[in-house]
Amino acid sequence: MSVTGAGGSADLIVVNGRVLTMDGDNPAAEAVAVKDGAIIAIGSSTSIEEFKGSGTKVINALGGSVLPGFIEAHMHLFSGAAELAHLQLAGVHGFEALQKAIRDYAATHPHARMLVGQSVDYTVLDDERVTRHHLDAILPDRPFVMAAPDHHTMWANTKALEMAGILNGRTLGPGNEIVMGDDGLAAGELREGEAFGPVLDLAGEGRVRLGLATGGEPDPMPSAAERAADRDIMRRGLAWCARHGITSIQNMDGNLYQLELLAEIEAGEGLPCRVQIPFHYKNFMTLDMLDKASEMAERYNSEWLSSGMVKVFYDGVLDSWTAVMVEPYADRPDWVGEPLFTPQQFIDLAVAVDRRELQIAVHSIGDGAVRAVLDGYEAAQKANGKRDSRHRVEHIEVTTTADVPRFAELGVIASMQPPHPPGAMDFPLEPTVSRIGPARWPLSYAWRTLKNAGAHVVFASDWPVSPIDPILGIQAAVLRKPWAESDPDQRFSLHESIAAYTVEGAYAEFAEHRKGMLKSGYMADLVVLSADIEKTAPADLHKLRPVTTICGGKITYQAR
Ligand SMILES: [Zn+2]
Question: What is the whole-number distance in angstroms between the Cα of residue 205 and the centre of ligand 1?
C-alpha cells in the first residue's frame, strides 16, 4: 500500500473491490481512499478502513472491478445530448419497420417543427438507396429527416427539402452533395453538413450544431431562456457520460459558446465530468482566425474545463465515398474521394497551429487523408522543431504499410473507435467492406498493427456516432474479428483495451501524471463496476454496468 501525506480521515473510501489500478508498479488492490478530490491511498480493505472517520462516505464495491474513470477520447457532447431526444432507428430494418417507427414517433411528437431520426443503416432498405419518395410514402405532410449512424449522410422527405429550400439543389463546397434525381430535383440523400445543414436548422437545434457545422458562435446571442435550455441539454449529456463511467471527455467539436455553457454549469452545481472543448477550424477560415483557438486555450485551462486543441476534418466517410483514398475505391474505380483541404493548405494549417503550441486532431478516415495529415505533422516538425506535440489522427479506418511507422516516428496519437469496424458492433459489413476492397482489409481499423509499430492508441465511441458505453467498446476491441482469414488479428487484450480508455486517454491530454491510473496523488476519478471485469467472459462484457462513478472525489452516478 502507498500513502500520501499525513493520512487522517478520508472523504470517501471504496472497499472490497477488485481494484485494477492500471499502474504497472502497483497493479492490483482492494480499496481506495479519497480526500479533497485526490486519491490518498490504495491498498487492502483493512488498511484503507483506517482512513474512515465519522464523516467518511463508504462505498462497498462488493467484489466488482474498480477502474480509473473512463476517458472518452473522441465524442460530441452537445449534439449527442440533443439527439437523446430524437427518434432512434438503430436496428430498424425494412420498409415496414421504418414506417412504423417514423409514424409512431410523429404521432407522439405532434408539435415538432422537424422530426429527426438517428442511426438509420445505409442498408435499411437492403440494396435500394433511400429516396424522398420512400419517406413521402411514410410521412407526406410533415417534414422528416433521418441520419446515418456516421452522421455524414441524411435522408429527407419532400416536405423537409422544400421547407429548407433545397428541393432544386444548391451549389456546395467540396465533399458536400445534395444528390439529384433523374427528375432534376433533390433525390432526398444529403451528403455532409452543408447539404443537410439547412434541413437540420429547421429542427431548432442550430446552436447545438454550430460547434460541428461552422465552429462559429450563436448570432444573435441566445436569450437567457435559450441559454438555460442549452445548459439543460449539456447537463443531460454530462449525466449520460457519468452513468457510463466516464470522468473525462475529449470533445471533438466546439466553440466558445459550449465552453461558456459548461463554465456556467461548473459555477452552479459543478461539472460531473472534466471536459476539453476544441476550436473547430473549417476550410473556409483563414489562419489568423487561429487567434480564437489561442484565446480559448488561455481562458479555459483548468482540470475541469479546458481547450488547447484545434479540431479539423480532412475528409468524409467511406460509405458515401467522401473519405480520401490513396488508390481508388474498390467499388468505384475512377474515384479516390475529395479532400476538404488541399495537402498544401493542410500543411500551412498544421505549421501554424503547431507554432502556437496547440494540439491538432484531424478526422482522417481514408488512407489518403491519413497520409496527408501525417505529411502536415511532419512539415510542422520541420518548420517549428520537434516538441512533445502529441498531435492526433482521428479514426484511421484505412492506412498503408508506408504510413504505419510514421505515427511512432512523429509522436502522433492514433485515435480509434472499436465500435466502428463494420461487423464489430452496430455497423453492417456492407457497403463498407466492398468499398474498401480485400486488398486494403489487412490495414483497415488496424489498431493492433499501429500499436505494435509503437503508436499510442486511444479508444473512444465518437458518440453519438456509436453508443457511448466504453464497456461496449472494450468488448468490441477484445472480440474484433478479421473479415478474411488471411487478415491480421487486430484484437486488443482486455488490459490493452482498458488502457486505451484510461492511461492512453490521459496521455492524449498531457495528463498521464495526474489521471488515467489509480495512484496516490492522482485525481480521484474512478468507476466501480457491477462485477469483476477480469473474470467476465469476453462475450459477456456488455453485461457489466457501472455502479458508481466518482469524479474529483464526488459521486457523479450511483446505480443503487
Ligand atoms: Zn467525431
Answer: 18
